Amino acid sequence: MEYRLAAHLSQGWSMTAPYACQPQDSRGRLWPERMSTFRSPWQRDRDRIIHSSAFRRLKHKTQVFVEHDGKEYRGDYFRTRLTHTIEVAQVARTIAGALDLNTDLAEAVALAHDLGHPPFGHTGEDALAALMEPYGGFDHNAQALRIVTRLERHYADFDGLNLTWETLEGIAKHNGPILDRDDAGDPVPSPLPYALAEVDAAWDLELHTNASAEAQVAAVADDVAYNHHDLHDGLRAELFTEEELAELPVIGPAFAEVDRLHPGLDRMRRRHEALRRVFGVMVEDVIAVAENRLAGLQPQSAQEIRDMEGPIIRFSKPLYQNIKAIKSFLFQRMYRAPSVVDERHRVTKIVNEMFPLFMKDPAKMPESWQRAILQAGDETERARIVLDYVAGMTDRYAIAEHQRLFPG
């Protein structure tokens, strides 16, 4: 068995660039475990995330459109938080592989990055953030850390999934450093969401530095995935047309190229062909920019990536400006479309009514959660238990619970 492990280390685990995270250099797990004989530490992290309850619940959590919004095809065709996560993981593996990074770590961070999202997407997050303001706040990245370190309770030896330091760091910092640095490079103290502060207190995640290149890849992959699939979903929802998209940078040239190569193509194929070109432009841009920066800076370790002034993985400035124009269009025509706004009001009301009810009357919660409330030391701890329950709900469960608790 030891030979098998050595063979893996020599035949693939370390065949990455010097600035990639190396499995044999992992800082390990908070609760020490024996090394697997056939999986790297980040392959184990990936597998634990996929098998977690929180990952399965993403199937019925909102990306943009709430599942139960009256059109019977919505749940079949529109992205959910789970399908979005799978797409992010696919993009992350592609980019990480092209840059000789550790694809398993990039994939693990990508698969975990949205575990902390509550029901109803960013609308649910906004509602819970306001409700939790007196109790330490709410942030879905911090909640993801709480899930993987405390709330998943399946293993005999520990709470959570006991993920490696590098995966936890990636979940916390994939969007960039959390704390500022002073002139000496030391962290500048600043208030943190309580869930993030708890994890960082138990195991210093170096919140003042960048994340690994692999985690940065996961963050950019998130941007690529949602900018691409939100265009698809917005068209399917008939919130805008191909003709309107053709007025936008990047997208317009993509439609023009498809029309030149495939004149007379039917509408759905034309749409798909154009948007997959947009997808390709984003991925190729990220890879080209990263290759140029890595060649110029020549980092020799993963730590050098963390200590840089800014991210090494990013869009070029011209494409970033074009993506901003696309995002602005999507914000006005999709995220703030009247039908979407109406739905936001409806689901905000659901969260705003359930949370205070559970705070006032925990007997309305399932028995296991009632026991946890009884053991709470104060109102803040009670609020955090109620938050864990509400944030863990799927859209369909939240809607059903609200109907049960507030009939009519």
Q: Care to describe what's here?
A:
With 408 residues, the chain is mainly alpha-helical. The chain has a domain at 240-339. 61% of the residues lie in helices and 0% in strands. It has 20 helices and no strands. Helix 6 packs across helix 9 (165-173) and helix 11 (213-236) crosses helix 16 (317-335). The model is unreliable at 1-12 and 69-75 (pLDDT under 50).
Write the layout of secondary structure elements.
Layout: H1 2-13, H2 41-50, H3 53-57, H4 74-77, H5 81-98, H6 103-112, H7 121-131, H8 140-151, H9 165-173, H10 194-202, H11 213-236, H12 242-245, H13 251-261, H14 267-297, H15 302-307, H16 317-335, H17 338-360, H18 367-374, H19 379-391, H20 395-405
Number of strands: 0
In one word, what is the shape?
globular
**Sequence of secondary-structure elements:** HHHHHHHHHHHHHHHHHHHH
* Biggest pleated sheet: none
- Rounded radius of gyration (Å): 22 Å
Q: What's the total helix number? A: 20
Sequence stretches where pLDDT stays below 50 over 5 or more residues: 1-12, 69-75
Distance between the termini: 62 Å
Beta-strand share of residues: under 5%
Structural class: mainly alpha
Oligomer: single chain
Q: What is the typical, i.e. mean, pLDDT?
A: 92
Give the fraction of residues assigned to helices: 55-70%
Task: Fill in the keyword field for this structure.
single chain; 408 residues; mainly alpha; globular
Structure summary:
The protein contains 20 helices and no strands. The chain is an all-alpha fold and 408 residues long. The N terminus is likely disordered.
